[in-house]
Amino acid sequence: MKGLELPINALIIIVLAVIVLISIILLFTTGIKPPQNIITAQTALSNACLLLSDTFRCTRSTDSIVINDFDADQDGSAGTLETGSIWTWGVSSCGLVGGTEGDNLASLCACYFQVSGSNAAEAEANCKKLCDC
């Protein structure tokens, strides 16, 4: 009696099944998590609002609350690479690549939460409302 032979198609199916099973096992054991150094816009807003409301009692302007670990003005660089508080209502725009306008609470409100107003003071007030100020 000759040795048992498996057709090549059966071998390919078995190998693929093993790869899929190993992938599923790894997926469930390691989990899917975003990188720890990346935060969301909502987390950045929460951190900036905490600083504005608790530390400064809502008295500082939103463009003076610098966000160091998030690209609030959507220009491709986060906080520490920029000056931080140059972004102002009605003058600056979101997504200006290579700009140095800064990542602060004002730019976060405008660029991620579409906060605006008929003038700079109203936009500032609307942004502070997000922080319950």
Describe the structure.
There is one protein chain. By secondary structure, the chain is an all-alpha fold. The chain has a domain at 41-130. Helix content is 43%, strand content 0%. It contains four helices and no strands. The protein is elongated. The termini are far apart.
Query: What would you call the shape?
Result: elongated
What's the total number of strands? 0
- The proportion of residues in beta strands is under 5%
Structural class, please?
A: mainly alpha
Number of helices: 4
- Main beta sheet: none
Low-pLDDT runs? none
Radius of gyration, Cα only, in angstroms? 25 Å
What is the first-to-last residue Cα distance? 86 Å
Helices and strands, in order, run as HHHH
Give the helix/strand layout.
Blueprint: H1 8-30, H2 41-55, H3 105-112, H4 120-130
Helix pairs in contact: 2-3, 3-4
Features:
0% strand, single chain, 133 residues, mainly alpha, 4 helices, elongated
Summarize the structure.
The protein is mostly helical and 133 residues long.
